[in-house]
Amino acid sequence: MRTLPIVHSLDGLTFAMAMAFFVGGYGCWVVPAVAEGSSVGHGEGGYVPDFVAIVRRYNASGEPFRIQGVCKSACTLFLGIRNVCVERSATLMFHAGHDIAENVTGPNTRASRAAFYRYNEALRRYLLDGHHMDTDAFHSLSGSTIIDRFGYPECPLME
After folding, report:
1. Which of 21, 50, 91, 93 has its CA 20 to 30 A from that of 139?
2. CA 100, 102, 106, 110: dihedral to nearest 10 degrees?
3. Would you say 68 and 121 are in contact if contact means Cβ atoms under 8 Å apart?
4. What's the CA gap between 47 and 43, in Å, rounded?
5. Domain boundaries, the chain
6. 104-106 and 91-94 as β-strands: parallel, antiparallel, unpaired?
């Protein structure tokens, strides 16, 4: 099996949009769902610097960004986008960052600090006081809680 990345450039930010798998001469395209201006396609999290780059891009442009569906791990960094909104039906899942170089997980890793920097003070305090960022176990909060308790803006209904 041979895998070839196919790259699509979007406003200067490059995303791997599809992978081609060739088995025995037959090919099929697999295209992940990625919605511009939305957490869709990023919900499983990933490499923190990649998410920081997306946050910076949206903060520089002022474009709106919608958090919807399941948003785990590094996806929660999108809360740091200046023009972010959260859908009430979303589920945000937080955990401690892991430092690969030092093989350490916890609130003092670079990944955790990157997240804390992007959360508002109320959410940061809640996660620290509750020790929700001490381990790699997920702590889930509903979009409604993120809006009502922590003051993030609610997304307008989609037409």
Report:
1. 50
2. -70
3. no
4. 12
5. 1-32, 34-148
6. unpaired
52-83 burial, b at 16+ Cβ within 10 Å, e below that, comes to: bebbebbbeeeebbbbbbebbbbbbbbbbbee
> Of 54, 131, 50, 136, nearest to 98 (Cα)?
136
Helix, coil or strand: residue 64? coil
The residue-averaged pLDDT of 97-124 equals: 93
* Structure confidence by residue, pLDDT tens digits, 43-78: 999 999 999 999 999 999 999 999 999 999 999 999
Residue from 1, 39, 42 nearest 19 by CA = 1
Dmax (CA) of the chain: 56
- DSSP codes joined into one string, 111-155: HHHHHHHHS-HHHHHHHHHTTTTSSSS-EEEEHHHHHHTT-PPBP
C-beta atoms surrounding 38 within 10 Å? 19
Model confidence, pTM: 0.77
Please give the backbone phi and psi of residue 90, each rounded to the nearest 5 degrees, phi first.
-70, 160
Residue type, 150: F
Q: How many helices and strands, by DSSP H and E, does the chain display?
A: 4, 10
